[in-house]
Amino acid sequence: MKFKENHKNALAKVLSDLVQSDGIVNQGEIDCLNHVYKVLRITSANRQKATTLTLSQATHILSSLGNTEKIAVLKIVQNLSASDDTIDHNESLLITALFLAIGIVLPEAEGIKASLVTLPSLNFDTRNAVLYVESKFDKNVNQQIEKQYDSISQMLHSSEREFFYLPKVMRDIQAKKAIFRNTLSYIEPTLSEEQLDIIDRDLCQLDSVALSKEIFLNYLNINGFNLDRPSFFFKIRSARPSSHQEFLILEIKDEPLTTLQRFYALESNIANLKPDNLSEKELRFLKKFELQNPKSAKDELQYTGFHKTIIDTLLKYNGSHGISRLFVTTKGDLYLTDRNNTEVKMPALCKALYILFLLHEDGISLNYLDDYKTELYRIYRQISTYSDDELLHQAVANLTDFIGTTMNANLSRIKRAFKSILGDEATLYLIQGDKGEKKTINLDRKLVVFEDRSLFE
Q1: Angle at the Cα of 115 (from 263 to 211), degrees rounded to 5?
Q2: What residues does 431 pair with on adjacent strands?
Q3: Of 419, 413, 240, which Cα lies nearest the Cα of 316?
Q4: Residue 180 burial (CB count, 10 A)
Q5: In this structure, are strands 231-236 and 129-133 parallel, antiparallel, or unpaired?
Q6: Spatial CB neighbours of 204, under 8 Å, sequence gap ≥ 6
Q7: pLDDT tens digits for the chain (457 residues)?
Q8: How large is the angle between the packed helices 348-359 and 373-383, nearest 10 degrees?
Q9: 3-state SS of 324-358?
Q10: pLDDT tens-place string over residues 30-41
Q11: H or E stretch including 97?
Q12: Which of 130, 157, 272, 454 is most buried, taking the most CB atoms under 10 A from its CB?
């Protein structure tokens, strides 16, 4: 019974995410990890490759294991979750998600269909949300949820979750249309009156299916995932900062409330599941993963997600290169490779403008920026999470036609994003130039690495 190299990489990813699911890593968990890595000969190279995987990619790889190896994964995960003496809701949810996504054959999971998917980080906080998502309107399921709404909300609340039933959310906003517009004028001050009018006009047409497609399904369809049934989307929490988010998709079968009850019954027992009818050989294999005489987890130094900020602070001025390389992903995310791969965070329109200047090394005069409107739109369309072409075109037009303070606001955001990481060393990365002259980014283009430049050209 052996794990191949790709299985080792995937398992290292799964275990790393599990350790960080509660935001704390302690000595008991480290001892458990060391033991598993020793038994399976998981090397530092495997752990480094694991960082390139998403959780859904890792579980897809592990799903190719035989059932005995899958049971070993379950045993390892159970041991790790118990090594800190507590299992919170985030840990039990992640274990259940892994269990279902990998496809371990056990009676307790029969009839429960669930998947793990990866999405770009959304523009709203989903840490404690469970969202109802549907690819087409299902009258029966929606009627059942309307009747069971209070019971579903109470059940989710008991596990520190909040129910986002999209039809109800849209009804509330549409019923308060005037208040919503007034609110937008304060919290989204860059929106023009024309854009606010568009929102007013189209708000009544926006429904649960359209929102489901915009937020989740368009992206999933591109990656070959089709949602056949209305489903609950559970956010898988991770304390580690990331440009992506992981979701458990729980397909609704029978009644929505019954689906959740069966799922939570499985989750509540996930740490104690013990497969029956294992052979002596399989039992000996599983025995290898039990840590003998484990140390107490409570009295050791704890490592939290906050330490990532400390690491970035210590390393960001001390990269192996005097000037850090800049990595541009296919979605326009910017990373300073030699500053501990720190992400330069800014809004999508800022990223689009910045990438436009990266592509034009000789510079662009702001007086002639309108000549680049089509190219800027193409870049913005590639990296934006929005699919409304009219809104995207309008945002680009406002920028290139210098409507309001849009240009200066975006240039300032780009400057702040780089200076917050590099301080005075940010100069080479900024869009700059004398008034009336071409604006350029003076960074040597040999230091700019595109994941796929062709997508932006």
Answers
A1: 95
A2: 441
A3: 419
A4: 16
A5: antiparallel
A6: 174
A7: 578 999 999 999 999 888 877 667 777 888 889 999 998 999 988 888 887 788 888 999 999 998 888 988 988 988 888 776 667 777 888 888 888 989 887 888 888 999 888 887 776 666 688 999 999 999 999 999 999 999 999 999 988 889 999 899 888 888 888 898 888 888 888 888 888 888 888 888 888 898 888 888 887 887 778 888 999 999 887 655 566 788 899 999 889 999 999 999 998 888 788 877 788 888 888 888 887 766 555 545 566 656 666 766 666 555 445 688 899 988 899 998 877 778 899 999 999 999 999 999 999 999 889 899 999 999 999 998 877 788 888 889 888 887 666 788 899 999 999 998 888 889 999 999 988 889 999 998 888 988 888 888 8
A8: 130
A9: CCEEECCCCCEEECCCCCEEECCCHHHHHHHHHHH
A10: 888 999 999 899
A11: helix 89-102
A12: 130
Are β-strands 114-120 and 129-133 bridged in parallel, bridged antiparallel, or unpaired?
Answer: unpaired
Contact 432/414 with Cβ under 8 angstroms?
Answer: no
CA–CA distance, 321 with 450 (Å, rounded to integer) = 18
| DSSP-based three-state secondary structure for 439 | strand
* pLDDT, tens digit, 9 for 90 and up, residues 382-391: 998 877 788 8
Number of other CB atoms surrounding residue 446 within 10 Å: 7
CA-CA distance, 220 to 230, in Å (whole number)?
14
CA angle 334, 417, 322 (to 5 degrees): 70
Question: What pTM value is reported for the model?
Answer: 0.65
First and final CA of the chain: distance in angstroms? 48
Extended beta strands in 146-268, E state:
162-164, 231-236, 244-251
With CA atoms as reference, report the closest residue to 270 among 115, 114, 152, 94. Answer: 94
CA distance 133 to 143: 14
Alpha-carbon distance values, 186 to 111, 123, 189, 395, 413 (Å)? 48, 18, 6, 18, 19
